[in-house]
Fold:
Amino acid sequence: MTPASGLKLTTVNIDAPDPAALARFYERLLGWKITREEPDDVFLSDPEGGVGLSFQRESSYVRPTWPAGPGDQQMMMHLEIRVDDLDGASAHADACGATLAGYQPQDDVRVYLDPAGHPFCLWLE
Structure:
């Protein structure tokens, strides 16, 4: 199947109770810059031109649980971040304010939670 003409994924939107705070976390983590900030939406652009991240206010936000159990708020998505040095990247994530998840499913991956509770993975190439 060929892709539809003119379609290009540009941004992944992430719900948050405080989009500016979450955007600043990812700005520090990834080294990207905030390119647009509005009261309820903040945008980060990939400096290499890839897919960007947007953080939008969700007034009824419920923090996900990972791994989720019966009745828990499940994550709807997570970011996969490739790293060259897992220990160095983990130390950087800690310094940025991420929390190491209690459950780690693989030796070459570190699952972290951002300040809003969204899981993200640092994985060794």
Q: What stands out?
A: The CA atoms of residues 64 and 73 lie 5 Å apart. The chain has two domains: 9-59, 70-125. The radius of gyration is 15 Å. The domain at 70-125 is CATH 3.10.180.10 (2,3-Dihydroxybiphenyl 1,2-Dioxygenase; domain 1).
